[in-house]
Amino acid sequence: MNSRAKIFLIASALSILSASGGLIFASVDDAQSFALEAAAPYVKEGFQVREDYWGGDLGSGEKKAVRQQLFKGNEYWFWMGTEVERAKISVHIYDSEGKLAEQPDGWEKGHFAAAHIIPKATGSYFIIVAVEESPEERTHWALVYGFR
Question: pTM of whole model > 0.85?
Fold first, then answer.
């Protein structure tokens, strides 16, 4: 195949992708980049961001629970992000009895959200992530966390 034919095929494929909305390339990795962006100011405050993270996709109004062992004496932030700029997301932390356990300084800013906890006891906690609203049928999300 000559280079002219290759260019034509690439241009045709890009045209088809563009007509289909162009979001074919969006992924949980993109969402993770936004979650890490939300964490960046906290790293300057001494928080160590863990390499592991959770991610997936949710429809508008859907929630997912993530269980995590947290330790008394540590302080934790959980940061959530999505690549869908007009999405509204949230993250909240509950103890093993289902009671809201987060500090009041959590926040939601468009396609970023964060929750903060200083556990009163070591144990399993449930981090509830949600896509409250989104213009997309399915919205990729990622959750990262840090401690100090």
Answer: no
